[in-house]
Design a protein that fits this description.
The protein is of the alpha/beta class. It is built from 10 helices and 9 strands. 35% of the residues lie in helices and 14% in strands. A 7-stranded parallel sheet has the order 1-4-5-6-7-8-9. The structure holds iron/sulfur cluster. The site of iron/sulfur cluster (SF4) has 12 residues, from helix 2 and helix 3.
């Protein structure tokens, strides 16, 4: 369905005001932790926070890039915060988490792209909750992929996520600071570096991508050994962001999910509200 300026009925959601939602809000706010849930205006915040799930955004909320689909601010970030790992660990304990998705802004200003901070957060959390499991959604580490993977290897195991976000034809408009092949290469290298790594990527639909181009991207992801896939509807997070070109119907997402399984992904989440961290803790989606 083409974007006519009105949100389709299947994309309307309520924000709950339950005690569980307020608890998540209170813990995160009290510890001064950033989340991608709020920074990206995620439409699932009500549902996820009510069920005690949130995705932590480390290394600040100022990004060194300016992707046109993203609501996170850009500019010159602050140096990494040495207290961050302990604050995230306290949050995990207070929320009794068993699975945590951690992401960050792009930190092209840092020699290691921020990999050391990911490692420190994981290790500190494990010090508090031994059997905790992690999923990382990392930037492309374009200037330091090998060094970053070497650092992260010391914090294995975790699901290694990196989003290609869209098809290559739309990179110059949607992800001008990134390169499609560099993103694929990171996923390939992560798999090669440690075969315990389950790799994952996500694509947003509705930015004007052609169906054949999406199929080719799914094949490209499989070609670099990507195991998991999340497909969701792009929603314009701010007035400055790219317009939605198309609202993809829920039935079409079901079709995409089936297609992804046929292409060999073993974990697939495909629905209008799917985001890379949405229900990420599920071991199986079949
Ligand atoms: S889908 Fe991810 S980013 Fe969105 S609210 Fe849930 S945990 Fe946060």
């Amino acid at each position: 369905m083409k974007n006519t300026g009105r949100l389709p009925s299947w994309l309307k959601r309520r924000i709950p005001a339950s005690a569980a939602y307020n608890h998540t809000h209170h813990v995160i706010g009290g510890l001064g932790i950033e989340t991608i849930c709020t920074n990206a205006n995620c439409p699932n915040q009500g549902q996820c926070w009510e069920s005690g799930t949130a995705t932590v955004l480390i290394l600040g909320n100022i990004c060194t890039r300016n992707c046109r689909f993203c609501a996170v601010g850009h500019g010159k970030p602050e140096p990494p915060d040495a207290t961050e790992a302990a604050r995230v660990a306290k949050m995990a304990k207070d929320m009794e988490l068993k699975y945590l998705v951690i992401t960050s802004v792009n930190r092209d200003d840092l020699e290691d792209g921020g990999a050391g901070q990911f490692r420190d957060v994981i290790k500190t959390c494990r010090g508090e909750i031994e059997d905790m499991r992690f999923e990382l959604l990392v930037p492309d580490f374009k200037h330091c992929q090998d060094a970053a993977l070497e650092i992260l290897e010391t914090a294995m195991p975790f699901v290694f996520g990196h989003n290609i976000e869209t098809v290559p034809a739309l990179y110059s408009t949607a992800r001008p600071g990134a390169d499609y092949r560099t993103s694929l290469e990171l996923l390939r290298k992560a798999k090669a570096a440690d075969n315990r790594a389950i790799t994952k990527s996500s694509i947003m639909l509705g930015l004007g991508e052609k169906e054949e181009a999406v199929i080719q991207s799914l094949k490209d992801l499989r070609e670099v050994g990507c195991d998991r896939l999340a497909l969701g509807q792009y929603l314009r997070p701010t007035k400055q962001s790219l317009e939605v070109v198309e609202y993809v119907e829920p039935e079409k997402f079901d079709w995409w999910g089936q297609k992804a399984y046929e292409l060999g992904f073993d974990w697939v989440m495909a629905s209008p509200f799917t985001r890379s961290s949405y229900h990420a803790e599920q071991d199986s989606t079949r």
